[in-house]
Amino acid sequence: MLFSGVLDVPWWGLVIIALTLTQITIAAVTIYLHRCQAHRALELHPAASHFFRFWLWMTTGMVTREWAAIHRKHHAKCELAEDPHSPQVYGLNRVLWGGVFLYVKESYNKDTLERYGRGTPDDWLERNIYARRSVVGLVIFGLLDVLLFGLIPGLLVIATQIVWIPFWAAGVINGIGHFWGYRNWQTHEASTNILPWGILIGGEELHNNHHAYATSAKLSNKWYEFDIGWMYICILRMLGLAEVKKIAPRPRFAEAKSVIDIDTLQAVITHRYDVLAKYAKSLKATYAEEVRKLRQFAPNDVQVLRDLKRWLHHDENKLQVRERAKVAAALSKSSRLNTVYSMRSELKALWERSSASRDQLLRELEDWCQRAEASGIRPLVEFSQRLRCYA
To answer: d(Cα 46, Cα 68) in Å, to the nearest integer?
Structure first.
């Protein structure tokens, strides 16, 4: 007869226990490994920090330095060939179902650990226990599960714990989170928010928000989004166990300035993702105005303009050659749309040019606003006037 365990727990009780344990592990990953260690978005009290380190050692065997280094490299090389786990490079299936193997492979890359793993714990426990004996914790945790719940139930609980992070974090977040979902912010890579309610994976479902504001301790940006990891952090902060360092900036507005000054320039650069989101509305409004005038266009031109809608909000650099040709053909039919579309690229260049001086950027932004306001395109004029209000 198989060992029945110390505790007599019904099947539904085992399910609750397994889900609770996995949620604690998810909280340790998102709060400690991700937001604290990889991005320094918050500081944890030594007691909380060591609890998370111990728990991750017992339940996942992940090493802090390895996890932080691989994640930092993902941000530095996102969607490029050097990205450790991009579905744009490896394909969705490989990252979704085999993300853990990509992680393990990268963990053996000494250059990655040396370059991106600095500032992580390097005390006696880390060197001699957590990093050196990373599998021992899993063995101890598995034996405890078997002792408490019995052989088969205990093995099922530890198996759930072992599989949870590799699939949901390494697979779903790194895979689907760069392939499918909605985007609040037009970041340079393909990150998406999988769902607006980050509950199952600790708030990591809001992946596009994270890539836009990587050093923010809070991953939710819109009023309808929920980040359960942020809720945990707020509880830790109330208990004196966490100190939040950074959250995503919220734009402030003042009276429109007749001439762009350094404060406005800095605010525009700081809130560039908000600027692009508002610009998208101007582009959409201009397109809607052109669609209402389709009777003025030839039948073939009407279809070309209608087809433009699917590519209108995409970054030109991410379009295929065939798609770029179709966009160019559509824009050639409408000077107004062509103006608004091309001026978006000019605006983005302001914060992408690292070599330009502050005075040069000021002149370029003022010139951009003057040309926008002289265009006579109502949505573009209104956007430019709003741009002068950033404070």
So the answer is: 18
**SS3 assignment, position 322:** helix
Q: Are 20 and 98 in contact (CB under 8 A)?
A: no
Question: For the segment 38-56, what is each residue's pLDDT rounded down to a tens digit?
Answer: 999 999 999 999 999 999 9
CB 220 within 8 A of CB 206: yes
Contact 49, 222 (CB under 8 A): no
Q: How many domains does the structure of the chain reveal?
A: 2
pTM listed for this prediction? 0.89
Instruction: Enumerate residues 6+ apart whose C-beta is below 8 A from 9.
Output: 17, 149, 153
How many Å apart are CA 178 and CA 103, to the nearest integer?
16
- Domain that includes residue 65, residue range: 11-244
Shared domain check, 40 and 164? yes
What CA–CA distance (Å, rounded) separates 290 from 344?
18
345 falls in which pLDDT band (50, 70, 90)?
Answer: confident
Tell me whether residue 251 is in a domain.
no
In a domain, 1, yes or no: no
